[in-house]
User: Fold this.
Amino acid sequence: MFEQIKLDYGFDALEPYIDTETMSTHYGKHHATYTSNLNSLAEKAGKQDESIEDILSEVVELKDIELRTGLRNNAGGFYNHNLYFKQITPGGSKTPSGVLQTRINDTFGSFDNMKEKLTALALGQFGSGWAWLSKTPDGTLFTSKTDNQDNPISLHTGHTPIMCIDVWEHAYYLKYKNLRAEHIKALWNVINWDVVGALYEGSSL
Assistant:
């Protein structure tokens, strides 16, 4: 059975950047629903014992269109939100260090350049979706954006996400209304780069 990532802090711990009601609704309702639906659909598809990465990679092979669509959306919603909630914490480093810092500087020129690139992707996403910082098996970094609950795994890019920006309206509308840019600006204040660095170096989600 798939389980939501556990938070070791209260829903109010990310104030003022992410408000208590948004955290409670986002984690306790949206993410919980994706998780529940995933478990039901994975069992129906006979995939309840597979990893979430395998489900995301193989879901396109399902012949039942309704089951394929439902599993793609909810498996993506589960995986994406597990990463999202893992990376945001009230503590930890707010800038990269070590190997990840070096690779970011080599790839983008600077951390600020990378932030600008990811912010632009998140702002430019039409409708619901995500912006991603991902790595390849050899450690190369890539930025991208996806629609709805797709991600670099479900799109078979060969990239593994290590950091993400959620631009579904439920991630920010209660506090920021239609001001997506303000939400993205605030989110950079709660990304824990110790977590992102560990994911870059091979830690599992």
Q: What stands out?
A: Residues 98-200 form a domain with the minor pseudopilin epsh fold fold (CATH 3.55.40.20). The chain is about 50% helix and 10% strand. The chain has two domains: 20-87, 98-200. Helices lie at 20-44, 52-58, 65-87, 98-108, 111-124, 173-176, 180-187, 193-200.
